[in-house]
Specification:
alpha/beta, globular, 7-stranded mixed β-sheet, 25 helices
Length: about 600
């Protein structure tokens, strides 16, 4: 694939390059995994942006950022794609540390317009001259942060271009043709000059000029409300253009070249097909949004998927919902990833997808609880961070029975810093009225869900990891609120494991036994409240070790440290963002695997 200088390529050559990029993505991601469908959908858009704008002087900010692979290819990183989302390799999201063409590190949705406006304001205040483009998907438009940014940007009158990449909405042929025709007229400099000239002439006509100008403006707005898609954006202060075919390079380049000259806030609406060019991804864009390695010919993942915590959650929710009709499920645009697809089909009136709006989902859940239902809000750990204030003030303050099913807690792996779920114990533990559980395996997870939904009557969270279980052979004793369980009874050394750390804790115990020790092993179960009997028991051990897959600050171990003597030794992640890599790699690198923990414990006990 010879990229060359995009400025020197004609449309046919750019079209050929787009086809080569698409094939490159399919081939490479079939080996590494990654966000496939979203990147296939923005090939032509990315090529057009790079053709029209001058990077790194001009800035392109990718909302969420998982659709930045084509951008990375065009900025000289194609030779690193074999390392995509691997430790020490290419990130799956924009990273300024990789390239000065990555203007802003992103990872969560609905943020790009705010960042772009900040950039634009800084540019204007410093009398600099460069273009700023925010590329936002239609999914991100469900997030309220987008509208806060649009409202602020629209009244700023600063030069900023927002590209709305719409891969879900459709538009009829007739309206589309009219829209394209009007857009072609409106976008030309001559039209805009005439428009400004008419306003000036009318304003200078004595007596009736201003009144006539307002009358024409009202008539124009009435027509816009009937026929033009972009009324909302225009009312917010943006010049709206589109929809434009997001796969037509000629139209895209011509449109962008004209829009680049327009002053003030501008929004370009393009229509694309998610998964474009790969039939399996076009048919199943949700499945191919984020994939592991797969067969290019069939689209089948390799190896075959094993049962995961999200599957157990979905199965258990179906059984619970059959027992109690007040149970409802809420997700923020993640029904597939969280295991709620079957629930949504079987109980459509009891399933709610709020879109990418975690703050709203939290308060919505609070309202459901106030209204007499039992809401179960399932959300990835990293995205629950976005609803901190709502959890604290709208759920915990009122002591509402909202169940938080926190998926992807702990190390999630390839998506890196913005997606590691290593902060939830810290920010949930200090919330009054909140209870927190962490299961060691599937069986305990089922019991915890049953308790949280049908027996508890206050805010409660269950945090569980991505993927499968790590201790399926360990039997589960009956679950009681606020109580830990002792798995092995020993002496001298006590190991306390939090949730998914049980697999490593068992390895540690085995290594210590082989070295002549007889450790006890406890499964914390409840991070909050802390088991008082557990605290009393731990005071009988000269050495206590806490194992948790959360950051050390504010975690379970730090909380325990202030409650018992002697002070326990903590094994947790440091106060830093954890980059991308496999769970196994990251545990080893940070000394959190069983072998490394056991080695440190043996050294401590020898002192």
């Amino acid at each position: 694939m010879n990229i060359g200088n995009l400025k020197d390529l004609n449309i046919d050559e750019l079209t050929q390059l787009s086809a080569e990029i698409r094939q490159f993505l399919i081939t490479e991601l079939s080996q590494t995994g990654g966000h496939l469908a979203s990147n296939l959908g923005v090939v032509e858009l990315t090529v057009a942006l790079h053709r029209v704008f001058d990077l790194p002087m001009d800035k392109i900010i990718w909302d969420v950022g998982h659709q930045c692979y084509v951008h990375k290819i065009l900025t000289g990183r194609s030779d690193k794609f074999a390392t995509l989302r691997k430790f020490g390799g290419l990130s799956g999201f924009p990273k300024a540390s990789e390239s000065d063409c990555d203007a802003f590190d992103t990872g969560h949705s609905s943020t790009a317009i705010s960042a772009a406006l900040g950039y634009a304001t800084a540019r204007d205040l410093q009398a600099e001259d460069y273009g700023i483009v925010a590329v936002v998907g239609d999914g991100s438009m469900t997030g309220g942060l987008v509208y806060e940014a649009l409202n602020n940007a629209g009244r700023s009158n600063t030069d900023i271009l927002v590209v709305l990449n719409d891969n879900q909405m459709s538009i009829s042929e007739n309206v589309g043709a009219i829209s394209k025709h009007l857009n072609d007229i409106r976008i030309t400099p001559s039209y805009r000059g005439v428009k400004r000239g008419v306003h000036r002439i009318l304003a200078n006509i004595p007596y009736i000029g201003k009144r006539l100008d307002k009358l024409i403006e009202r008539a124009k707005n009435a027509v816009k409300f009937m026929f033009v898609n972009g009324v909302l954006f225009e009312e917010l202060g943006f010049e709206y253009y589109g929809p434009v075919d997001g796969h037509n390079l000629k139209d895209l380049i011509g449109t962008l070249q004209n829009l680049k000259r327009i002053k003030g806030p501008v929004l370009l609406h393009i229509l694309t097909t998610k998964g474009k060019g790969y039939v399996q991804a076009e048919r199943n864009p949700d499945i191919f949004h984020g994939v592991g390695a797969f067969s290019v010919e069939t689209g089948i993942p390799s190896p075959q998927k094993t049962k995961e915590y999200s599957d157990i959650f979905g199965e258990t929710m179906l059984k619970l919902a059959a027992q109690n009709e007040r149970i409802v499920a809420i997700t923020a645009a993640m029904p597939d990833g969280t295991g709620l697809c079957e629930f949504s089909k079987r109980y459509p009136t009891r399933f709610f997808d709020t879109g990418i709006a975690e703050s709203h989902a939290a308060i919505f859940s609070a309202g459901l609880a106030k209204g007499g239902l039992i809401p179960v809000f399932v959300v990835y750990s990293t995205f629950l961070q976005r609803a901190y204030d709502q959890l604290l003030h709208d759920i915990c303050l009122q002591k509402l029975h909202v169940v938080l099913a926190i998926d992807r807690a702990g190390i999630t792996g390839p998506d890196g810093e913005t997606h590691q779920g290593v902060f939830d114990l810290s920010y949930l533990s200090h919330m009054p009225n909140m209870s927190i559980m962490a299961p060691k395996n599937f069986d305990e997870f089922r019991k915890m869900l049953h308790y949280a939904v049908l027996e508890h009557n206050a805010p409660i969270a269950i945090r569980y990891p991505k993927g499968g279980e790590f201790s399926e052979k360990i039997p589960t004793t009956p679950l009681k609120y606020g109580e830990a369980e002792q798995i092995f009874d020993g002496e001298h050394i006590a190991l306390v494991s939090v949730g998914a750390m049980i697999g490593e804790a068992v390895k540690v115990a085995e290594i210590l036994r082989a070295a002549g020790h007889n450790p006890s092993l406890y499964n914390a179960r409840f991070i909050k409240p802390v088991d008082k009997k557990l605290l009393k028991d731990l005071k009988n051990y000269p050495y206590v070790f806490i194992l948790e897959d959360n950051v050390r600050l504010g975690g379970f171990g730090e909380h325990i440290s202030g409650l018992i003597t002697p002070k326990p030794h903590l094994f947790a992640f440091p106060d830093e963002f954890i980059e991308h890599g496999t769970r196994k790699e990251l545990f080893k690198i940070y000394g959190m695997d069983g072998e490394a923990i056991a080695e440190r414990i043996l050294k401590i006990c020898e002192l």
